[in-house]
Amino acid sequence: MQTTNTGSPQNSTQPRGDASANVSPEEIARFASLASRWWDPDGESRPLHDLNPVRAAYIAARVDLRGARVADVGCGGGLLSEALTRAGARVTGVDLGEKVIGIAKLHLHESNLSVDYRVQSSADLAAAEPEGFDAVCCMELIEHVPDPAALVRDLETMLKPGGWLFMSTLNRTLAAFGAAILGAEYVMRMLPRGTHHYAQFLKPSELGRLLRHAGLELEDVSGMGYNPINRKAWLSRITAVNYVLSARKPT
Ligand code: SAH
Q1: Quick one: which of 166, 163, 162 has its CA closest to 152?
Q2: Considering only Cβ atoms within 10 Å of each terminal Cβ, which end of the chain, N or C, has fewer?
Q3: Where are the domains of the chain?
Q4: What 8-state DSSP symbol labels residue 135?
Q5: Angle 204-213/148-158 helices, nearest 10 degrees?
Q6: Which regions of the chain does DSSP assign to beta strands (E)?
Q7: Atom 16 of ligand 1 has which residue's CA nearest to it?
């Protein structure tokens, strides 16, 4: 039992050995290596910093966040969790990366916010709190898990009837390959090489099908435009690179 307040997670769930966790250990290790610089707006998480206000506004335009219970699945260092908490939500942030959850907890000392961060899989959160959340957010995670359909089913299980699901990911297009892999990883060297695997990107129609099969109703798909030079981000009709979507669980 750890007694020092280092921000290290307690009751850690070990991803390895848990066959139901739907996780690749290499992915967790890759994000762990970025953890200490997660809150540096000029570090490797820079695109997430720049996109964060846009996706937070997308969510706030659909859900009254004041007092809402929100799950942030694959929360990383907590950029979205903190933004939603500032907007009045009661946020539970889960991630299987112990390092990133440690950083997310540490940052609460700086922001003076309160977020319930846990090292927990989507399956375990769904089992612990079925129909527990008014909204569930899962940003930039699905392209990193071995079984995307299982992840979507977990997210559906967590939602209260009438609840909102928000997801964002990269489209599987030449444009996304150019921007997210060639551009960000090779030309601008913003992201470490190997951050993304093209074959795991999902087209909106494919993600839409996974949502439908899980019993969710797609409400909107919007593109997220991003200019890495001036660091501006905006919602757009062009979904060819990064997109965000909303879906509802029927009442
Ligand atoms: N959602 C955050 C972080 C995205 S980075 C944001 O958009 O700001 C992807 C995150 O997913 C990393 O923190 C990584 O540790 C986590 N991750 C990768 N595979 C996972 C899995 N199978 N289950 C839970 N988290 C996972």
Answers
A1: 166
A2: N
A3: 9-248
A4: E
A5: 50
A6: 69-73, 90-95, 116-119, 133-139, 159-170, 217-227, 232-236, 242-248
A7: 74
pLDDT digits (tens, 9 = 90+) for 112-136: 999 999 999 999 999 999 999 999 9
Q: Is the CB of 22 under 6 A from ligand 1?
A: yes
Closest CA to 95 of 81, 114, 112, 111: 81
Residue nearest (by alpha carbon) to ligand 1 atom 9: 141
For the record, the structure tokens of 51 come out as: 């996109």
What would the CATH number be for the domain defined by 9-248?
3.40.50.150
Q: Which of 82, 102, 117 is nearest to 7 (CA)?
A: 102
pLDDT in tens, 53-79: 999 999 999 999 999 999 999 999 999
Can you say whether residue 126 is alpha, beta or left, with left for phi > 0 and alpha for psi between -120 and 50 degrees?
Answer: alpha
Does the pTM exceed 0.85? yes
